[in-house]
Amino acid sequence: MEFGPIWRAMTRNKIGAILIALQIAVTMAIMVNAISIMQEKSRMMNRVSGLDEHNMFTIQTVGFADDFNERVTTEEDMAALRAIPGVVGAFQTNSMPLSGSGWGMGLQLEPGEEIDGTGVGMYFVDEHALSTYGVNLIAGENFSTTDVVWREPATTSWPGKTIITLAMAEALFPDDAMSALGKTVYIDDTQPMTVTGIIEKMQGSWPSWDGFERVMLVPSRLLWKDSDYIIRTEPGMRDELMPQVEELLAERNKGRIVRRMRSMDEIRERAYRSESAMIKILTFTIVLLIAVTSLGIVGLASFSVNRRTKQIGTRRALGATRVAILRYFMTENFIISLLGVILGAALTIGLNILMIETFSLTRIAWYLVPVAMLIMLGIGQAAVFGPARRASSVPPAVATRTV
Amino acid sequence: MFSYYLKLGLLSIRRNPLMSALMIAAIAVGIGACMSILTVNYAMSGNPIPQKSEQLFYVQLDSWDPNSPNDDGSFDPPDQMTYTDATALMKADKAYRQIASFKGSLVLEPQGDDERPFSVLSRNTWADFFPMFDLQFLHGSGWDDAADYNIERVVVLSKETNERVFGGENSVGRSVRLVGMDFQVVGVLDEFHPAPKFYDVTNGAFNDPEDLYIPFNVGIEYEMPRAGNTNCWKSIDGDGFEAFLRSECAFIQFWAELIDETEKQEYMDFLNAYAEQQKLLGRFPRPLNNRLNNVMEWMEEEEVVDEDARVMLGLSLLFLLVCLLNTIGLLLAKFLGKSQDISLRRALGASRATLFVQHLIESGLIGLGGGILGLGLAWLGLRGIEVLFGEYVENLVGMDWVMVLTAIGLAILSALLAGLYPTWRACNITPAEQLKIQ
Fold first, then answer.
1. Is any Cβ of chain A less than 8 angstroms from the Cβ of B436?
2. Hey, are the CB atoms on A116 and B67 less than 8 Å from each other?
3. In this predicted complex, what is the ipTM?
4. DSSP secondary structure string, B317-356?
């Protein structure tokens, strides 16, 4: 191979080579860090909610009339909703998982104000909740009708039973999560509750909270003016039933308004909107970046081919084959790109360290660096191929002509 | 001479159309990416009330849990205030102006049988809210202090709400029905869309302002529905609304207007004295840690500029760097390709300085082209961000003239910087050597 001559030729035009190498290095640093951010965002979005998401929706009811009766309204609404053909389940609650609004509590193993409880997302539910959410109860039993109490606004006492998620059980009993069943935990510092069931998986209201999968269900119907209804339908029936339900609720009681009817799919889309937007923007950025860098390589290589037309002709006249010429330019680019990706690996890691220190980002996966190095080398070779092929087609006769 | 160089520059750009297009495109893409992200950051970090942001202070009292840190692991004071403390500070009246406020969610019943009731967001606050934050009125004015103390059911509507309910007419003196009670309209606001919504960042720094404003005491007296974040560290002692008001639950934002450093110091002393006095009553179990932050300090403290936006800004600046490296390489190639031209002009008497200026002007022209095209791309980028993020960024994707000038300035500056080295190289070509070859 002709590494020697190529290297010596390059040192004559150092700056050009350095510029390309730098460009490749910075491109790689941005690309790898952007991909790492995208991986983190999609890991976040891909967590399983445990709910039958595609067949659920929620609607909010807000009573305002003087004679608005919370209890009668809730009872009649639930009876009416559950009677609709195609509705699998319906219940009243304080808010919907992933919706961004909710109620957080702390649970602790011993009573006492000085003890720091484990944070948990809390939902008020009735005995229809488990089947409506579609969650999987792996231990214990569902609430019975008699467990569910009516809850006044601004009440501070809690029912005696709760169902928690496995993630919450693990946080409370790290040694043996399943042993949580039947144990007594304390809410509001001092009030005992017995864990009567464990759910395999369910998510709370705030996706960016580290206690997102720690959830507790409390058997209460709400005597509040505003509450949320969650409705699950037979597969495929949701879109058909949503307007029906809205109409039914709006017509049944003029002393309230119904609003914010949203499918679980829409709630998920809203919950992760900024994550999915970020992924799209970063993907677009990477594509643009690679386009700019490869066009730059093409431009510079074409220019250098044009400038060296005469020398190429001379080499051809002296017996160099077309393949040798092609190989010359490809090798030249390979050396430059190699320098670029080595520098790029260092820059990538440096940028990552800086980002971890400045922002709450995680470390890049180790394999991204070598993979990106190979990709950048490939992009360099692909970009230079066109100009190099043009160089190889310079006829030997050029050498005999004066410019 | 300048116009002659301009002409030469344009000619040179036209001679290598592909290469010039590549350079302009590279700068445009870099500027477009940078400017769209920068615009969002600029809007997020904007000063929503520049004329008096130094005199408005967000008040934090540390009434919190001695045993456990906040959710973020710090022992900072809570970002909102309890009812007990907010009313005590209002009563003490130690600042030039002060207001406590919280967010509510109400149902508004329009008159007329066909109109359907709809839900509105309310801000429950004090008379001084309006003069303190320099709010402008289309009709009428805010309520007076008497309305606060006499618990009068008065309301100030936002411009949008007035349009929805009264078709934009002067509604002062008319009445609005809220959660089953009549409220008298005393004022209608002009446009009011502060970004960030500095007076309540806890409930979303870029949310829309509330639909209407009612006296704080009215909201409390009639137990009107609250919305927004409520945080309690201690269990509530007893049932009902009274018990909630007495509890250690924080849901109120408190602002004080303090004219100068002396007043600020005096107010701080007052807050600390208040905290000491509360300690005697068995409250405020943590060490003394009360805070006064002015508007921009508070925005910084609450990190209203989204982390993702800052990450994107960093990446987009690096992106611009790649585009500039690209342009330097291409300009270098191009200028060196003109060696013979340059040598000829030197031989005919053009000085190095002349050639330097000429080539810088050519670089500047490329920058200008890139800047203008980049502005277009930035606009497209912002529309893209708007589509992707939805209503959340509504107030953040507008480009003002500062941003337009920044874009063009940044593009020209970048191109000039990129052109420096190639220009310098071009001017150092030895004419004799080049002319000999010919």
1. no
2. yes
3. 0.87
4. HHHHHHHHHHHHHHHHHHHHHTHHHHHHHHHTT--HHHHH
